[in-house]
């Protein structure tokens, strides 16, 4: 099992928000050693309060427009999908992203859960998407490969995404919220599993970590929110795209631990207005992703994503003009990624820092 190491110089925490970040006080023992990238949504003239003692950068819409210029059109506005701008400007190997209504959860024995530590553990140990292990993650403490697991596959594959879960308020769509308004998730399952190759999943962005070097260009949360016909499908869109690319490039996705405490239920009627086209469209979107076969020539995440963008326009475009616009935005996103994250020249090892905005120590 890989040694768990300190990643304070290799990991950024990305937080989208429209409000003061008082919730960070609860996370202080776990987050304070790390650098925060805060993406302020909504009116850039509003002041966002950040507790003292955190090392952070704060970006608002004016900064997005200044840094990306015309390419800023690919960054969503008035939607938590704006978090992907933080992925774009980070220069760290790993990203952990969390919503501002998520607090520290507790294990059944009352011990506070260090969500970041578990995500790091997930990312630093291999995944097993090619053959399912019935004891779930064979690299977890107290686990191993079961009898009958091929020895040739026991080395596993690099883990690109660690998808955490939530206690208290479940991550439900609006119709389920409406029929189960008082339901709470109290079930703590002490398990991590690799999502098998060829299987999609609904990715939730409120408790998520990933290896930016392995899969970063695919973690685009799409065009959602203000001016768009759909919302609340941003993280799921990124998850479907990323999973198809992970399967193609033989990378792994883990789900399960860690848990966070989701404190606030959003309004189901507001959610229904945002989701209703997505609920209808997903009956075509899911088969689309299930049928995708990327060309062997696509050997980088960027190559895969551009091909995926073209297929979105070609096959989903006839459903609604929105998908033509989304496919174009996906291409713009990759152009922005390559502009802010150019590969270093062969003889050059030093990296150039991105422009700092509202840097605090």
UniProtKB/TrEMBL annotation:
EC number assigned by the record: 5.4.99.30
Enzyme class, spelled out: isomerase
GO cellular component: cytosol; Golgi apparatus
The keyword Acetylation appears for this protein: no
Subcellular location as annotated: Golgi apparatus
Glycosylation sites recorded in the entry for this protein: 147
rRNA processing recorded as keyword: no
UniProt-recorded Gene Ontology molecular function terms: UDP-arabinopyranose mutase activity
GO biological process per UniProt: cell wall organization; plant-type cell wall organization or biogenesis; UDP-L-arabinose metabolic process
Lineage top rank: taxon: Eukaryota
Catalyzed reaction equations: UDP-beta-L-arabinofuranose = UDP-beta-L-arabinopyranose
Entry coiled-coil feature ranges: none
Primary location class: Golgi
The entry's keywords: Cell wall biogenesis/degradation, Glycoprotein, Golgi apparatus, Isomerase
Entry similarity comment: Belongs to the RGP family.
Primary role: Probable UDP-L-arabinose mutase involved in the biosynthesis of cell wall non-cellulosic polysaccharides.
Entry protein name: UDP-arabinopyranose mutase
Organism: Prunus persica
């Amino acid at each position: 099992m890989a040694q768990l190491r300190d990643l304070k110089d290799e990991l950024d925490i990305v937080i989208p928000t429209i409000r003061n970040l008082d919730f960070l006080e609860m996370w202080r023992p776990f987050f304070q050693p790390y650098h925060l990238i805060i993406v302020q949504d909504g009116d850039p003239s509003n002041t966002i309060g950040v507790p003292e003692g955190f090392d952070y950068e704060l970006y608002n819409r004016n900064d997005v427009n200044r840094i990306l210029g015309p390419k800023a059109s690919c960054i969503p506005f008035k939607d938590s999908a704006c978090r992907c701008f933080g992925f774009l400007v980070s220069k760290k190997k790993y990203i952990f992203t969390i919503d501002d209504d998520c607090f520290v959860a507790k294990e059944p024995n009352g011990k506070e859960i260090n969500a970041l530590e578990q995500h790091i553990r997930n990312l630093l140990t291999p995944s097993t998407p090619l053959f399912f292990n019935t004891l779930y993650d064979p690299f977890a403490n107290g686990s191993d490969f079961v009898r009958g697991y091929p020895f040739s596959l026991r080395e596993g594959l690099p883990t690109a995404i660690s998808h955490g879960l939530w206690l208290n308020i479940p991550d439900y769509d609006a119709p389920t919220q409406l029929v189960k308004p008082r339901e709470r998730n109290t079930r703590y399952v002490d398990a991590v599993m690799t999502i098998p190759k060829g299987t999609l999943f609904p990715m939730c962005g409120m408790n998520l970590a990933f290896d930016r070097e392995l899969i970063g260009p695919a973690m685009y949360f799409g065009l959602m929110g203000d001016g768009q016909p759909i919302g609340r499908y941003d993280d799921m869109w990124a998850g479907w795209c990323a999973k198809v690319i992970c399967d193609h490039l033989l990378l792994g996705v883990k789900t399960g631990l860690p848990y966070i405490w989701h404190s606030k239920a959003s309004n189901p009627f507001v959610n229904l207005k945002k989701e209703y086209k997505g609920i209808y469209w997903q009956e075509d979107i899911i088969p689309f992703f299930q049928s995708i076969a990327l060309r062997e020539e696509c050997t980088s995440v960027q190559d895969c994503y551009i091909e995926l963008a073209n297929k979105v326009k070609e096959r989903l475009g006839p459903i609604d003009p929105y998908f033509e616009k989304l496919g174009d935005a996906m291409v713009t996103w990759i152009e922005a990624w390559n502009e802010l994250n150019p590969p270093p020249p062969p003889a050059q090892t030093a990296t150039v820092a991105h422009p700092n905005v509202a840097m605090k120590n």
